[in-house]
Amino acid sequence: MIEIGTATHPLPHADAKYILLAKQKVLTLDGEFLLSLYDFHPSSDMRSVYCGTFEDQDIFVCRFSQAPKGFDESGLRELLFETSDYYYGLLSRAHQLATWDADHQYCGRCGEPLTTKHAKEHAKICAHCNIRHYPRISPCIIVSVRKDDQLLLARPLTAPEGRFSNIAGFVEAGETLEQAVHREVYEEVGIRVKNIRYIDSQPWSFPHQLMMGFFAEYESGELTPAPDEIAEAGWWRYDDLPNTPNATSISGQLILAHVKALAESNI
């Protein structure tokens, strides 16, 4: 597990490990994404951010505008699904911090360049108006809905044919998490839910979400997929589900947990 409560941000050094990014790709050598300083040559366009410590080593994420020669390129989503839970949080944190660094080079209040990072936390301070800019985290809900012995699954317009998942969406300003569950389910498939129960959470670095997972039960309404978001939606018996995300994602974890709960209840 990566330790993030460090007091200072050290500079890159030879004993540290590095995660390299270029154009939304993770750079690897011989299948490894945790590299040493001797595996690459820093360039003038490279930006680095300190992530914390992992296995008693300092970790930095470095972003290049173009991938240096000699590296293989892996999509973050594919790499997250392929790696173990042990490295999931490390990769997620590194990508989110690199995104924050790239997206916050200028002050959002006055437009002046941000050149100073606070020594005790991940924050950029504008020397002109003194505002601090922290890494952005966007809260989202994702919910597995049950109706008797069936689970609600939907296929977004962006998903491939035959790939189904849970209802999910961003929390809006002024909402509680439970209100967001009610709203997103109704907006996307036209039904009302009840008995909402929090299950678990997961960082989702596309680019900076925190997914908060719930169970809920069907209350009323007919499934009516939102035409601008959902290609199709339906109810599937818990022991006869279509193609769903694997257990690396919180969507897959919620589905598996709900299936287990339904199977144990002997419905």
Radius of gyration: 21 Å
Domain count: the total is 3
**Which residues form runs of ≥5 with pLDDT under 50?**
none
For the record, what CATH class of the largest domain applies?
Answer: Alpha Beta
Give me the CATH fold name of the largest domain: Nucleoside Triphosphate Pyrophosphohydrolase
Q: How many beta-strand elements?
A: 14
The class by helix and strand makeup works out as alpha+beta
The number of helical segments is 4
| Portion of residues within helices | 10-25%
Which descriptor suits the 3D outline? globular
Oligomer type? single chain
* Topology order in helix (H) and strand (E) letters: EEEEEHHEEEEEEHEEEH
Task: Output mean pLDDT.
Answer: 91
CATH architecture of the largest domain: Alpha-Beta Complex
**In this structure, how is the largest beta sheet organized?**
6 strands, mixed
Strand content: 25-35%
Protein name: NAD(+) diphosphatase
EC number: 3.6.1.22
Pfam families: NUDIX (PF00293), Zn_ribbon_NUD (PF09297)
GO molecular function, one term: hydrolase activity
Q: What does this protein look like?
A:
The protein is of the alpha+beta class and 267 residues long. It is built from four helices and 14 strands. The strands form three sheets. Strands 9, 10, 11, 12, 13 and 14 form a six-stranded mixed β-sheet that branches. A hairpin with a 6-residue loop joins β7 and β8. The relative contact order is 0.13. The model has no long low-confidence stretch (mean pLDDT 91).
What's the gist of this structure?
With 267 residues, the protein is of the alpha+beta class.
